[in-house]
Design a protein that fits this description.
InterPro entries: MFS_2 (IPR039672). With about 160 residues, the protein is an all-alpha fold. The protein is built from four helices and no strands. Helix 1 runs antiparallel to helix 2 and helix 1 packs antiparallel against helix 4.
Amino acid sequence: MTYFCGLALTWGALLWFWMQEAPAQTEHPQVEQITVYGSTVLLGAGGSTVLVTSLSMVADLIGPTVGSGAFVYGLMSFTDKVSNGVAVQIVQALHPCKSTNPKHVCCSACAKFYRIVLSAVPGGATLCALICLAILTLYVYRRTRQLRDPTFDTSD
């Protein structure tokens, strides 16, 4: 349930990111700049909740076989680093402005691009996490039910 709450916080932040306008395109740019902090806090709280709950699930998965724990956590960390690196490279490759000038002010296409990136990329990851959570929950429910009642039929 905690994992689901973390996903809900993350989805709240993603919807908030999607609804925000670029500060230069609104009547009150200061208000839009301030609201970025609220959506960022939601994203941080949701992401932290999901991360801590995921680590707890991995610890439960390892259980008493602590000999493989270092390998599992190392593999998990390596996968995290590689997937983040690949995601950053994809985002940079798809960026609409190709200027390398540090004083370059991005165009309106950049604002739309970043809105999509801030909403769709974490949204896709949380959707995958929600599907995995549903499968895991169904498996745990069926397994628990089978252990309590040996006559429970799992073939359906």
